[in-house]
Fold this protein.
Amino acid sequence: MLFLNHIWLIPLFPAFGAAVMFFFGRRMQKAAVSAVCVGAVVVAFAFACFTVVEYTQLAHGTGQPFEKVVYTWLGSGDAHLSFLKRDGTAAQFNADVGFLLDPLSAIWLLFVTGVGMLIHIYSVGYMAHEGGYYRFFGYLNLFMFSMLTLVLANNYVLLFVGWEGVGLCSYLLIGFYFHRKSASDAANKAFIVNRIGDAGFLLGMFTLVWYLGSFRFIDVNAAARSGHFAIGDPILTAAALLLFVGACGKSAQIPLYVWLPDAMEGPTPVSALIHAATMVTAGVYMVARSNAIFVLAPTAMKTVAIIGALTAIFAASIGLVQNDIKRVLAYSTVSQLGYMFLALGVGAFAAGVFHVFTHAFFKALLFLGSGSVIHAMSGEQDMRNMGNLRGRIPTTFKTMFVATLAIAGIPPLAGFFSKDEILWQAWRSAEGGIPYLWLIGFGTALMTAFYMARLIFLTFYGQPRMSHEVEHHIHESPKSMTGPLVVLAICSVCAGWLGVPASLGGSNAFGKFLDPVFAHGASALPAEPQEPAGEEHRGLEWGLMALSVGAAVVGGGWAYHHYARAGKDYPEPIAVAAPSLYAVLFNKWFVDEAYDYAFTGRRKVGDIRLGVMGAGEASSWFDEKIIDGTVNGAGWTTRAVATLSTWWDKWIIDGVGVNGPAILARMISYPTRLLEWGLVQWYALVMVAGLLGFAVYYVWK
Amino acid sequence: MVPISTLHYLVVAAALFVLGVIGVLTRRNVVIVLMSIELILNAVNLNLVAFSRMWGNLHGQVFSIFIVVDAAAEAAVGLGILIAFFRNKETINVDEIDLLKW
């Protein structure tokens, strides 16, 4: 129990390495940097191995998870953070720093530390002549810390901490050569697109805690499997879909895959570790971890499967025509991740995890091998300028060839078992109808074989198409680089043997190991990975296997025909046969341009921006001119009315109404007073005149 | 010769009255104005006496005595006002009484 109780040390070894780099790295020698950082990961791997061995002894195959809470981070204790769940009961908001080890995280722990260790060793050789050596290893160790936190977390919040950490390290490492604008742009793109996924993840996480009351995986799984919730529960479906949005961002599925090909701007070990073997599998891990929720939401599962399948074939189609060796591998990664989500979506969780496991080995090997090729070619990455390297860099060639066979799915290498398991489950999920998902997967397998074989043949076969100076410098990589290649090649061959299905006489130890994680109470799955296939199914399964192997051979042979003897200006068969299709594929289906138009507002029509940004600008213009204008207008109107009113009051009411009569009186009085002379005799005269008037009047009467 | 009837007396009285009115209205001297007022009063007396003769009773004559008394009192008061006026203005020009002038 020694190792299990100190499981929290595993992420801390690389964290220590990163801290040392942060404080002292600048002054340290390269040898010291390597010793600290690579040593940290080696120790972490060894520790992880012992821990998993102890766990298997402890669990005795029951798959009972081992949990160790180290520290209460958010929530209860003295500060009670209680909140109301959806059904009105109170719950505690509680997120610990705790570590969970069960079969699922054990597998991830082993291959993350294992492949990570090999890549660290490789980087010693690869980055030997680069600047920023300590910075690179510091970031790489920080990444290992975040990834291990993610994998070992016992609740969604700590998983999210690791999730964000790997996103950050991805940004830092993609933008490692920050002097290059393309690299810093690619880093920004990766982080921003990832962030969109993170928003979905957060929303899903909060929906879950509001509905179920807890972040802990054990609690969530128990609640989901309790039978309390109906299959197709709308809130769980919403939570599952939101979590899947997060997975799309992290694991590069449609529509958030666009960052991964650009991420190839980073150094090759980064591409191998982060964008092939570990970070991009975080989404798969999270969905597998939440399998209890997804099982209760068939709509979400269907969505996962469909998006996975579409991503697989979409990315494979783009990979057929790319010329940069790393870009082909990047699209291949997106495509293989699509396979993994296809598996998860049809309910074959163990098959998806198995593919993650095998894929980590052969994809890391492919990337490291391509790094070796680039190293040999003095930095050249374009396959059009390679050729005939197989004699010059034999170890690299042999290991990459093995990896290509693995990814194409040739038995008995690893890729065959995992990929075929997925295709078999996809076929079964159709339940008698047209197996669309299997067809898409089959087409993707054909394309995968083709473009991977194309990569091998263009790089290692044919006529040498490079310049003479480059040709002179071609050399095999140092042992620190070829060593991991060989180890990974051995793993690519053997790893599949852990999951040989029953139909081929194997014991499927891998699947059985994962059984307790994916056991479900209420099962609505179309595919039951552990259901033993009857005899009639065996024949169908063998037939499908033969078909996919045949597809791989056909794809490989086709590529051989077109590329194995490629000379200086070799023709691309797709460009010859269908030039417009080639243009579309070469331009990645114009998705980046579409996003530019729709979201980033980089495209303008005259002065007006397009898409969402343009709509935002339009609303802002509307708000500023029209709404604020109305408000200002109301104010102006009030002032004008007030001014008018004042004028009316001053001139008309006061002037005419009040002063008018006064002026009138004065006007009348002026002549009138002139009548008053003050003369007595005048008064007397008036009196007499009046008298006379009376007299006259009476006389006339 | 024409016999002297009431009409002759009335004409004379009227003539005296008009002269008196003209005197009141026109003369500058306050004393003359007062004298003209007396003239008016006396003209009225004459009128009354003439009508007394005409009607053959003494009503006119009695009333005349009243008017004489009234004239005497009025003359006294008028002279008193004249004296006061003179003390104020040092003049007996009627045109000088214009304090109510605008």
